[in-house]
Amino acid sequence: MPGTSSGGNLRVSVEIPKKIRLTRDSLSQVQKRLECQRRVERLRRNHTCCVPGCDSVGVEFEKVHAMTRHVPTVFDGRLADPSDTVQGMRVRALLQVATWLLGRPGTLHDLLDLVNAQHFLESRETTHPRSSSWPTLEGFCRYLREPVPAEFTLAPVNSVAGLLHWRVLYLLAALLQPRDRLYWMEQFAYPPTVVESLPEAVDSHFHPDRLRRAANIHGTKEDVLALEVEQQVVRLKLKHVVASFCDPETYPSSRDVDTFPPEVIVAVGIHPKHAANPKRFLTDALERLSSLLTNPRVVAIGDVGLDHSVDPADWWYQMKLLQKLLPIIRENKVLVLHCRGITGDNGMEAHLLLLHLVKPLSRQQRIQLHAFNGNQLVVGWWLEVFPNTHFSFNRSVENFTPEQVAAVVSMPEDLLLIETDAPYFTRPHMRFSAPAEVVDVAAMLAGLRGVTTQHILEVTTRNAVNLFGEIPTGQVAL
C-alpha cells in the first residue's frame, strides 16, 4: 500500500537521540506558542503563528498564512482531482516529515499517532473538516487503499487522510527545524502551471459578516472567504471579491481593513433598511462610515440606496438617509447602489426615484447597480445620466421575465458584472451561498447571451478590475 509500510506503534525512544531531542524541543515551543495564541484569541480575532521563529505578528488570515508561508504547494487545495503523481508526492512529503520528527523512517500511521498524541487540535473550534473537503480526503484514502471513515474528524484525527488538513500540516510545519522546513517547502513545491490554469473570476458583491452568521462560522475570516457549500463547486481562482459591509453593527475597524488580503476589495455603506433606526444610531453610523472612507483600502461606498420591499412608511426615511449620504460620496470611490422595488416588481419606480435622488453627483461617478433586475428602459436611463454605470447580476437571473432577459442580452459587454450577494440567492436546498458560486451566475449569463462561461468570466473579471481598480493579489483559491 503506497506510503503505509508496516511498522509498530510510535516509538520515540531511539535511534537518533539528537533528532528526538530536537523534536521534543519543538513540541515544547509549539505548545507554548499555542497557549499564547489561545490567550490572544480570547482578547482579539488575530492569531499568533504557531511556527517558532515566524516574524508574522497578529495573523488575521490563519489558513492563508499557513498555506503560503509554511506548507509545500503540493498540498494546495486548488489542485482539484489530483493525479497519482500529486498523491505520490504528498505521501513522500509526509513520510519525509515522519522521518525528521521520529528520528527514523516512519509510516503515515506513525505520523498520525504523533499528531494525536500531542492533542494539538482538541482545543480548536473546528474539530471536523468541512464536508466540502471530504472528496479530497476520500480520494487520498482510495489512493492509499485505506478505509474511508463514515465521517472525518480532527480531534482525534481518525484517518491518515486527515494529515492533508491544513491545520494538521500547519502544526507539522511548526514542529520542523527551520532548515528542514525550508527544504520541505522547496522539495515538494508543485509546478505552479497547474494552479495558474484555473479560470479567474471576481465576485463583485458579497457580505462576509452576514455570510459568517448564515454559515455559523466561528473561525477566521479566511474560512468565510474560502467557504464552499456542501455541493462541489467548479474550481476557480477568485482574483478579487468585493466585500460589502453595510450593517454598522458589524463594520470592520480601519485596522481590520488594513489586514484584509489584497484580493479583498472593501465597500462600506449603510443599507437602506437601516434608515428607520433611531437618529442616534444613524448619526453614529454616518460618523464611522465617514472615518472608514478615509482608509485607501476602502474603494467603494455601499450598499446604499432604496429598498421598497419594506413597509412604505419607511420609504421616506430611506430617501432622507440617502440625501445625508450624498455629501460624503467622492468621485474616487465606486458607488454601490442597492435598488429594490415592491416585492414581485422589477423595480422600475424605485430605479427612477433612485436615479433622481443621486443626480447631484458627478456625471463621471463610477456606479455599480448591484443585484440588477431592471429592463432595457432602466438601463438606458442610467447610462444617459451616468455613463460609468456597471450592472451586476446574480442568481436571480434564472427567474427573469422576458423583459429582464432582453436587458441582459442587449447589455454592452463592457458593463457586465457578476456577483453572488452571498449569503443570499442560494442553490436549491442550501442554507447560504458563497463567493465560489459566482461561476454559476457566469454560466447563466453565458446561456442567455449565447457565449461560453469562460468568456463571461474573462469579461466580468476585466470589467471589475476596470471599475474598482487593480490591486496586487495572491488570489483566493476555492
From TrEMBL:
Keyword vocabulary terms for this entry: Hydrolase
InterPro entries named in the record: DNase_TatD-rel_CS (IPR018228), Metal_Hydrolase (IPR032466), TatD-like (IPR001130)
Pfam families (UniProt xref): TatD_DNase (PF01026)
Single GO molecular function: hydrolase activity, acting on ester bonds
Entries under PROSITE patterns matching the protein: TATD_3 (PS01091)
UniProt key word Nucleus: no
Top-rank lineage group of the source organism: Eukaryota
Family from the record: Belongs to the metallo-dependent hydrolases superfamily. TatD-type hydrolase family.
Name of the molecule in the record: Uncharacterized protein
Species lineage: Eukaryota, Metazoa, Spiralia, Lophotrochozoa, Mollusca
